[in-house]
Amino acid sequence: MAFRTTLGWSLISSGIVTLLLGVLPGGDLMWGLLLLVVGVATLLYRQT
């Protein structure tokens, strides 16, 4: 059950990020790297 929930949230967040990258000004690479850093920081923060 946890796998389905994780997979569902992953797909939803991927869709949202894809839409954001199309709308936000600037380079897609810059936004992609920024979102990656924010995601890693969130995971590290939740583990502590």
Notes on the structure:
The protein has two helices and no strands. With 48 residues, the chain is an all-alpha fold. It has one domain. The longest helix is centred in the N-terminal third of the chain and has 22 residues. Keywords: Membrane, Transmembrane, Transmembrane helix.
How do the helices and strands line up, and which of them pair or pack?
Elements: H1 2-23, H2 28-47
Q: Report the biggest beta sheet as strand number plus sense, adding barrel if it closes.
A: none
> What is the tally of helical segments?
2
Q: What quaternary form is this?
A: single chain
Give the DSSP E fraction (strand runs of 2 or more residues).
Answer: under 5%
Short description:
By secondary structure, the protein is mainly alpha-helical. It has one domain (2-47). 88% of the residues lie in helices and 0% in strands.
Which terms summarize this structure?
single chain; mainly alpha; flat; 48 residues; 2 helices; 88% helix; 0% strand
